[in-house]
Hints:
It is built from 3 helices and 4 strands, in the order αβαββαβ. By secondary structure, the chain is of the alpha+beta class.
Amino acid sequence: MLLTEEQINILKWKWIKVPYVNDTCIWCSACVAISPDVFTLNEEWKSVVLSRDSYEWLSVEDSIMACPVDCISWVE
Length: 76
Ligand code: SF4
């Protein structure tokens, strides 16, 4: 299940860091290979974030570092 705006707000309210992928994604799939429990590719050729209770210990920082176009960040 994909992460919804409502879920993002709930996680932020709980001070849980949430990853975000912006529109510059080039569908290289590096993040999916590194963090398959966090990212998936959709039919619009973009990486999207899966719904989870927490994103700790799931190599999100490694995916951020590996993304060739720097389009992954944490929700502010
Ligand atoms: S690593 Fe970056 S460019 Fe590649 S699929 Fe993931 S978000 Fe998109």
